[in-house]
Design a protein that fits this description.
2 copies of one chain form a homodimer.
Chain A lengths: L9 E5 L5 H10 L5 E5 L11 H17 L4 E4 L2 H14 L4 E3 H12 L4 E6 L1 H6 L1 H9 L4 E6 L3 H7 L5 H16 L4 E4 L8 H8 L4 E4 H15 L12 E5 L4 H11 L6 E3 L3
Parallel strand pairs in A: 1-2, 1-3, 2-9, 3-4, 5-6, 5-7, 7-8, 9-10
């Protein structure tokens, strides 16, 4: 593989559309960076699959993006970051950032009480990856994790402010409210779309940490430090690669991205 | 391939655990038949995938089961039946039954008003396969279809009698209640687990058609007619094949099957 250049794209990947919340944060924070996004829409969702299957699929995607000469890999899927980040890091010739590390760092910086809650898919939560990442950086923090398997289908149904979603959130957060927690990590890239509803349900009990915003900040720092920030002030190049026909990806994706989606290609892995 | 024998197993397949409601109905109705079940748990759910992807995956599974010398193929997944049954039938040397045809026939036999409602995953409903199957057999019937994308995740969460599920059902069925419908087809193999709740929400407005029961009746008729019913009165052989590690399949599967699950093998397609 050739040497990474500032003009090379950032590679962002996810099991489906969710990672577009990360792309959106990157576009806002770093408006001149080229980005190539990979969504494994033929095999989504990963949250219900086994560790070995997720590791296998994740490495296939990382290999594909490295062939596109990306200068940085961002694992925008919490499930993949939870169980496959080490595998990708071990093999990657370019830096690898992931949403779990980013969310963990941000939560540690922001908690006052030392009590951090994490919500995510069952695989992310069962992997215990957030608690491990937080404790590695700051062993004295109290972490309470709660799986919320219905949030992804509710977001994809578009019920962002529906009584069913509100009732579901109240049910899932009931045990979180009992703990001494002042900071809640949204440990799934779908969840930023539920932020208004979650802020309403949590009230002033806790602040929310959005890992999409956290990872955009981390990316800016890393590119600067390594001399890899794009110096061109031309319109950046945005490409989207998916594994299934892109109709649904486009419809739902534009809601996630908050802008129109062009240049979508389909590949088979 | 060798000639089919009565002692050969029935091959039942689905994208995940849902088809086990069909296996359960077969075990009750035909207690001496050998059964091999295939659940594509590494790639579940199919309901959100494109037609061409579903056709490709479905044919892979049918080929695998034919290699196991099945005497009959049962497509127990409504999504696969909706978009890939023709492809499988065109290539199969053994008879192929599918849940859509079975549900359509049963609904036609049972409706008095001629108004039939169908609920299912978005792909099943968008394919319009139930309406086509019903109109092909009985063109004067009025069919109203409604996608219920949240029912599968709600069943898998185990919220079979939860206020969230009740509220979701009321929301989805609202437009169905406006139509002149006396018969509602459960067009997804997960939905039989919601039967008590759905009966409560629909009240005496309509009867429910469970395609798992319908297909077990159809299977009994077909095996009898073709001289393929197993004559052995020995304990039958039940095998389960999945594409992901079977832990979750076993836990959720036993709820679907209503009995313990043994002999689960994992394969890669």
């Amino acid at each position: 593989m050739a040497q990474s250049l500032p003009s090379h794209p950032i590679g962002v990947f996810d099991s489906g559309v969710g990672g577009l919340t990360v792309v959106r944060a990157l576009m806002d924070r770093l408006p001149f960076e080229n980005i190539v996004y990979f969504g494994d829409t033929a095999r989504v969702p990963y949250g219900v699959k086994s560790v070995s299957t997720i590791q296998h699929f994740t490495q296939q995607i990382a290999d594909f993006l490295l062939q596109q000469d990306v200068k940085l890999l961002i694992i925008a899927c919490n499930t993949m970051a939870a169980v496959a980040a080490d595998v990708v890091r071990a093999k990657s010739p370019v830096p690898v950032l992931d949403v779990i590390e980013a969310g963990a760092k941000n939560a540690i910086a922001r908690t006052r009480s030392g009590g951090i809650g994490v919500i995510g898919t069952p695989t992310t939560i069962n992997s215990n990856a957030y608690a491990r990442a937080i404790h590695q950086l700051s062993p004295d923090k109290h972490v309470y994790s709660q799986a919320c398997p219905l949030f992804v289908p509710l977001v994809e149904e578009g019920w962002l402010d529906h009584p069913v979603t509100r009732l579901t959130a109240q049910e899932y957060l009931k045990p979180v409210f009992v703990e001494q927690i002042d900071t809640l990590v949204l440990g799934c890239t779908h969840y930023p779309l539920l932020k208004p509803l979650l802020l309403d349900v949590t009230g002033d009990r806790m602040q929310l940490v959005d890992s999409a915003l956290s990872i955009a900040d981390q990316t800016a720092e890393l590119l600067q430090a390594q001399g890899l920030a794009n110096t061109s002030r031309a319109m950046p190049d945005y490409r989207y690669v998916v594994t299934d026909v892109p109709v649904k990806f486009q419809t739902i994706g534009e809601r996630f991205l908050g802008r129109s989606l062009n240049r979508i290609d389909r590949v088979e892995l």
